[in-house]
Design a protein that fits this description.
Blueprint lengths: L1 E6 L29 E6 L2 E5 L5 H7 L7 E3 L5 H4 L6 H7 L3 E5 L1 H10 L16 E5 L4 E3 L2 E10 L2 E10 L7 E4 L7 H6 L5 E5 L12 H11 L3 E5 L7 H7 L4 E3 L5 E3 L3
Parallel strand pairs: 3-4, 4-5, 5-6, 10-11, 11-12, 12-13
Antiparallel strand pairs: 1-2, 1-14, 2-3, 7-8, 8-9, 9-10
């Protein structure tokens, strides 16, 4: 299974507008973080999790010319505002794009992208979105996907566990924007080859795990390898990775991981 990190940054991105801190002015490309999103490929199936403001650029840089589905963790702007750009796939693939998410997330998509659902000619000017609510396990092509509900401050966010549809093979889970993984989700995340988990910064936050909290949860889940995402400018890549336990590291934009390979 191939996992490509399209973006690993917080809602502000890194560099952050108007900031001259050491990370925002760093020459290390691993400290340049677009809004968080990930591409998952297994055999003939290609899906993306989240479509933030840089979605078009991320997809072009990853050389993606076909997409089977979009999975949305939640409807905050840094995770959905690039959704209009699936129009290119509508045209090249001659059909609506399946969009998977919770009922709450899809309701917000309908609200924010209301023009996409109004009657009228398509003309390439609006995306064709096939909204599909996830209330249990589902499949996309060669992938089985298990959605899990996690806490995101006072709200919730959807994490996704991926496995080959025909059984066996590598397993991967993506859990961004969370500060609470409930016990049932911890159990469902057992035995992973790769876990990607939210780790905003060094200090406490009302809606995200701190790095220390993320490390503690990663240890509890016990994946063979854990990479952290959705980092702010408070975490320098190299210095932070040197402080982490074996088998854990910060992810970085354009990183490609061959899970189980």
């Amino acid at each position: 299974m191939r996992v490509t990190f399209l973006g690993t940054g917080t809602s502000h991105g890194v560099p952050m507008i108007g900031c001259r801190c050491a990370v925002c002015t760093s020459t290390d490309p691993r400290n340049h973080r677009r809004r968080a999103a990930v591409l998952v490929e297994w055999r003939e199936t290609i899906v993306v999790v989240d479509t933030g403001p840089e979605f078009r650029l991320q997809i072009i840089e990853a050389h993606v010319d076909r997409l089977d589905a979009v999975l949305l963790t939640h409807a905050h702007s840094d995770h959905v505002m690039g959704l209009d750009d699936v129009r290119a796939f509508n045209l090249s693939q001659s059909g609506a794009m399946p969009i998977y998410g919770s009922e709450e997330t899809l309701a917000e998509v309908r609200h924010r992208f209301a023009y996409a659902f109004r009657e009228g000619p398509l003309g390439g000017g609006k995306p064709q979105l096939d909204l599909r609510s996830v209330d249990g396990a589902f499949s996309v092509g060669d992938l089985d996907v298990l959605p899990l509900t996690l806490r995101h401050g006072p709200g919730v966010v959807t994490a996704f566990r991926f496995a080959p549809r025909d059984g066996g093979g590598p397993t991967f889970a993506y859990a961004t924007d969370t500060n609470g993984v409930p016990d049932d989700a911890v159990d469902a995340l057992g035995g992973l080859d790769l876990l990607v988990l939210d780790a905003l910064g060094p200090g406490p936050h009302p809606t995200h795990y701190s790095l220390a909290e993320a490390v503690a949860m990663a240890r509890r889940i016990g994946a063979r390898r854990t990479l952290f995402t959705h980092m702010s400018h408070a975490l320098d890549h190299e210095a932070t990775c040197e402080s982490l336990p074996e088998g854990m590291a910060l992810a970085f934009d354009r990183q490609v991981v061959h899970v189980g390979g």
